[in-house]
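Crash report, auto-generated. Payload:
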Amino acid sequence: MTKRLLLALGATTILSTAAFAGVSAETDPVQWALENDPVAWEITEGLTTEVGARQGGTEAEARARAWALAYLRKSGFANVREEAFDMPTWVRGEERAWVVSPFPQKMVVTALGNSASTGDAGLEAEIAYFPTLDALRAVPDGSLAGKIAFVSHAMKPAQDGSSYGAFGPARFVGPNIAAKKGAVAIVIRSVGTDRTHRNPHAGNTNFDTGVTPIPAGALSIPDADNLVRMIERNGSVKLRLLLTPRNLGTQKSGNVVAELPGSNPALPPIVIACHLDSWDLGTGAIDDAAGCGIITAAASAIKATRPRRTIRLLWAGAEEVGIWGGKAYAETHRAVPHALAMESDFGADRVWRVDFKLPDSAAALADRIAARLAPLGIGRGKDPASGGADVGAIIAAQNLGIVDLQQDGSRYFDLHHTPDDTLSMIDKAQLRQNVAAWTAALTELANYEGELTLAPKR
Amino acid sequence: MTKRLLLALGATTILSTAAFAGVSAETDPVQWALENDPVAWEITEGLTTEVGARQGGTEAEARARAWALAYLRKSGFANVREEAFDMPTWVRGEERAWVVSPFPQKMVVTALGNSASTGDAGLEAEIAYFPTLDALRAVPDGSLAGKIAFVSHAMKPAQDGSSYGAFGPARFVGPNIAAKKGAVAIVIRSVGTDRTHRNPHAGNTNFDTGVTPIPAGALSIPDADNLVRMIERNGSVKLRLLLTPRNLGTQKSGNVVAELPGSNPALPPIVIACHLDSWDLGTGAIDDAAGCGIITAAASAIKATRPRRTIRLLWAGAEEVGIWGGKAYAETHRAVPHALAMESDFGADRVWRVDFKLPDSAAALADRIAARLAPLGIGRGKDPASGGADVGAIIAAQNLGIVDLQQDGSRYFDLHHTPDDTLSMIDKAQLRQNVAAWTAALTELANYEGELTLAPKR
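Recovered output after restart:
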């Protein structure tokens, strides 16, 4: 990797001597990152090429951890280590669907995480159609006996990702509701926004304790549209479904942790997070190799400026399948005070807004960060920052300060959890804008010696 | 279908009373089609919903023929009939690929038509990498023994589709060349232009007589890019390939033929063609349900004007897998004189150019057609028209006149032969522009009583 890094830097030097003449990582790390950062791409390209898909709890995720440890050590970070934990692991098997009648044809389907298996013989049943999740909620218990529920709740894209909150429940809880009402299986319209490509969106679902899981799949959106057309024509549609996932029981996963030590070790660290695992259909480029690339690139970019506060990098394990890494991190580090948390886990498109959750005493700090971000085309939001999945537990445990660098999510749910989440979707210019934004924010935060948590230090 | 058609017309009437006030199918069929045609969409939607994928020689194609016969009869066409023929039939089985070393991960692959099977156990071999087809051609016979050839010839989009000619041979003849040089299998970069979605492009390949077919697959373009990155890093890459297609031997297929009888039965007919079959990964919307929709809608639009010359519709069978329908049509109808041939088989995006191949005596006719097309944003080309696959044999047999309404192919090879060829990709406004263009051309052609063939009548 080091050789490649040098080559990349060498090439950049030749191509933009003018930029180098005026900008160095020492004097202006933000501009330098915007124009020259090689690290975010290198990590995104490296993980997707040399590891590919890396589902939490699998051997591929273990290879990803080995890759991460080697990369972070070669890059000169301190205290690079793996923090192992155990977790239950579900893996995909065969997955196919066919309309049996009235219009026989294949459908493209993927099993949702924690789906039950249909068995190798598959199952065949009439569809009970629900245009929305509320329509499913409204039918009486037991009314779906012998049926495959089909929930066709149609998500729309939103720049801030808010539509995932509105439409995600079709996946998160739809299967649980259908199981309670007696359905033999469920298929949902993919909780995603790519209306034209025939790739389904994977992701976890969960069944309540005491509810027997049923086979649960997501149809690609063109297939869901086709199924709706059939239902509107004919009423009765029979589907055959084959999903053969398995539970592997408890498996090993782990977080990868590394540090850029601050010049004042007495100051509690800032933790910056991404997740190393991915869903298995794509190669996990936007979700979330890019996030690991962005946070690591920013930490690398400010290294030469020797910031006062330690920056701790958390490349979390097993986020997609239950945020196991984030919970394990909080468990392990609960007793040690942290200052603030940030996370990059919303793709690789440009940052468009910054949100804060800081003590009142840090108001001037927030103003300085916002001022540094404005030249990058980033506005200031009024929402309180909320952090991210992997830092959620440590934030809750210690009431940490938070800065959210909100990424443009307009196309995120076109790609998220689909086979199309590959390196080919990464826009290098937008990726570097992310690094520049993180570099700007970290420059202020890591040199701020005042209080950053919202409660008194513990 | 009739009920739906009436409903569609009803809705259109409400929405565009103003247009109806000035435009009727009788007085201005071109403008009427541009604003109101319901037929092209109805056929495209109907075939993709009620039949879906319909590979030549399969039971699904037989259902598509039944659908077509019923539709054309209900729509009032004359002499609606099936003209059966036999053909050899190859069908897809399992298809998977994995990089075994150095970077283990799945790849997305599809078998090329006429590929051999790897057997259920699959095969594993080192890759021999060829950035271009010429690089494969250049290596000595026997030099690929024990290797999987990988040809990564990268196609670029072109509005006129010309890049298919430049890059298609990687698929058409690459496998045959690799087999002759001793390769145990071949994978190619998909001959398509969608660089970002992880769906491979299917399509036929052919092996020379005496050459033993080898397993031959197409990788999605993001996967081909990933494989190239691995090779550039590591040199040696080992791939495992599982492709289990089968030859079903001789199966039934057929053409569907229908007519709009001209008021002067002495004039030889104009044959207008599309193909009814599709590849099996998508639902065959742009390739070529839309083509059948366009030609049939145009014939419907001019019906009320009672044109002089008979228009014969050919919905050809088994085009994708060897142009069996087009050859069968020429065989059956060789003895009966035709006047001119046209075909729609390049998607559903707008017509941008018209090309002619007509006798000199018809120069004024070509001028009139070009003048009618100009208001639709269609320019006049200088290339001689060449027709299409399904009318190729009858054109050659009778030296027919040809008019080509060239469609914009900029995104055609993003979708062509992939799972993404579904109804979701159809742009209704562009589809109607096609119908309007065909209506304009047919209005002139079907009322022209002069000579249209290039050789004397037989």
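Post-recovery validation: Residues 1-20 of chain A have pLDDT under 50 and may be disordered.
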